[in-house]
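Notes on consecutive records. When two proteins share a document, each keeps its own sequence and its own token line. Never mix them. Below: protein one.
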Amino acid sequence: MSRIIKTESNLRDRNRLSRWIVFAIRTLMMQPEASDESKDLVAFIIICLQEIDHSIEASVVAWEKRGYWVKADRFRMQWQWAGKSATELQSSLEEEDWGKIVIQMVQLGQRFSTVKLPNRMKESPPWENAYQRLNMGKN
């Protein structure tokens, strides 16, 4: 077997995930009421935040190997909210507390306020069945 080589950097992954989060938040906020698609959207945002959180540690490993401890710690502090937000959002989704979810979406929207969406996003929404994937990951 040959090695699997990751061709995208963690920065590129975070940028892509950030765009998807912003797109999902916009789609969620346009819905008149909570539905199965709303659960999928929130679950998709949680999954993206978890992936961002995991990419942070992978990013700082290279800096720590070179002795850039301060830079690594600053970067961790800059992104520490991602894992915490994912956990809080997941507990709100489990409780189906949509009032709290809306507040958390506004806070996330502020975090990602500098993210620019392209004119055209991928045709098929990536959040289809995200609620099931999130629940399968807990087991």
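Protein two starts on the next line and is unrelated to protein one.
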Amino acid sequence: MPKMKTKSSAKKRFKVTASGLVKAGQAGKRHGMIKRTTKFIRDARGTTTLSAPDAKIVKSYMPYDR
């Protein structure tokens, strides 16, 4: 059986930690920042970990990065 391919879009956007959590960039920061509150912008810095159901989907896109 040939190897499965990793989704190129997923490997650019997500990273799996050593404990198996999936790290991703915060959503909602691409455009329209003028209407966002300062608190939202401040809280949305850096990265976040995905919820378990979302992480399961992302891990299926990256079969060898577990």
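For the record: Residues 8-26+33-61 form one domain.
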